[in-house]
Specification:
The structure is a single chain. About 25% of the residues are buried. It is globular and about 50 Å long. Residues about 1-30 have low confidence and may be disordered. Helix content is about 70%, strand content about 0%. The longest helix is centred in the N-terminal third of the chain and has 32 residues, at about 30-60. It has one domain (about 5-195). It is built from eight helices and no strands. The protein has helices spanning about 5-15, 30-60, 65-95, 105-130, 130-140, 140-155, 160-175, 190-210. Helix 1 (about 5-15) runs antiparallel to helix 4 (about 105-130), helix 3 runs antiparallel to helix 4 (about 105-130) and helix 4 (about 105-130) crosses helix 7. It is an all-alpha fold and about 220 residues long. It holds the Pfam family ERK-JNK_inhib. This is Coiled-coil domain-containing protein. It comes from Gryllus longicercus. Keywords: Signal.
C-alpha cells in the first residue's frame, strides 16, 4: 500500500528551496513552497486514488465469494498495520491534523499519505463488499476503532477532495457508525449479495449431496 510518490513531494520541497534569490519577499517564500508542495500532494493523492479504485474493481471481479473473503482479510490486515504504524510516527513527530502546517519532512509526509490513502482504500472496499468487510471487522475490534480514528483524522487534515470526503461519510453510514441519511443506499451492495447468494447455494448443494450418500448395502447374494 505504501506509495513511492512521497519522495517526489519531498524533492519538490527541496527544489523550491534551491536558487531562491533574496528580495523583499524572502519571508513569504517558505509559505509559498508549502502551498506548492501541498498542491502537488493533493494532485498525486488523486492519482493514487484512481489506481486504488482499479484495484478494488479487480477485487470485486473475483470469481468466488471465498476468494473475495480471503483477499479482503489479507488486504485489511496490511491496511490497518500501515495506518497504525503511521499513526505512531505522526504522533511522535508532533504533527496534529488541522493544526500543524503542511509537513515538509519526508518521513512525516510518508506517514500522512499512508493514512489518507489506506483509509480511503478501505472505505472503497467497505462500500463495494460491505458484508464481507463487516464480517472481517467484527472479528477485529481494534480495526473498528482504528478505522473510526483514521476517518476523523483524515477529515481533520483538510487535505481530502470532496469526492473522498463523501466516500468516507458513505462508508461510515454503511457501518452504521453514524446516522444514515434518509435516502441512503449503497449501490454496490446488490452485486455483492449476488455473489453471496451463489456461495450459499453452492454450500447448500454440497450438503444435499452428502445427505444422499448412504453407507454400504448388502447385495442380494448376501441376504
Amino acid at each position: 500500500m505504501i506509495s513511492m510518490f512521497y519522495t517526489v513531494v519531498a524533492l519538490a520541497c527541496i527544489a523550491f528551496c534551491i536558487g531562491i534569490e533574496a528580495d523583499v519577499n524572502v519571508a513569504e517564500k517558505p509559505q509559498e513552497e508549502i502551498n506548492k508542495s501541498e498542491q502537488l500532494f493533493r494532485k498525486l493523492f488523486k492519482q493514487r486514488r484512481a489506481e486504488q479504485l482499479d484495484a478494488v474493481k479487480g477485487l470485486v471481479a473475483l470469481s468466488s465469494y471465498e476468494k473475495q473473503y480471503k483477499m479482503v482479510n489479507v488486504i485489511l490486515d496490511k491496511v490497518f498495520s500501515v495506518i497504525q504504524n503511521s499513526r505512531v510516527l505522526l504522533e511522535s513527530s508532533g504533527y496534529a491534523a488541522g493544526i500543524s502546517s503542511f509537513p515538509r519532512d519526508e518521513t512525516v509526509l510518508d506517514a500522512l499519505a499512508n493514512i489518507l490513502e489506506n483509509t480511503a482504500l478501505f472505505a472503497d472496499i467497505m462500500l463495494h463488499l460491505p458484508d464481507i468487510s463487516q464480517k472481517v471487522l467484527a472479528a477485529n475490534y481494534e480495526w473498528q476503532v482504528l478505522f473510526q480514528w483514521s476517518i476523523s483524522f483524515a477529515n481533520q487534515t483538510q487535505l481530502l477532495d470532496k469526492q473522498t470526503v463523501k466516500l468516507l461519510h458513505l462508508a461510515n453510514m454503511e457501518l452504521n457508525a453514524t446516522e444514515r441519511d434518509p435516502d441512503y443506499e449503497n449501490p454496490y451492495r446488490k452485486k455483492e449479495e449476488k455473489y453471496q447468494f451463489q456461495h450459499e447455494q453452492k454450500i447448500s448443494s454440497k450438503k444435499r449431496k452428502k445427505v444422499k450418500k448412504r453407507g454400504p448395502r448388502l447385495s442380494v447374494g448376501e441376504l
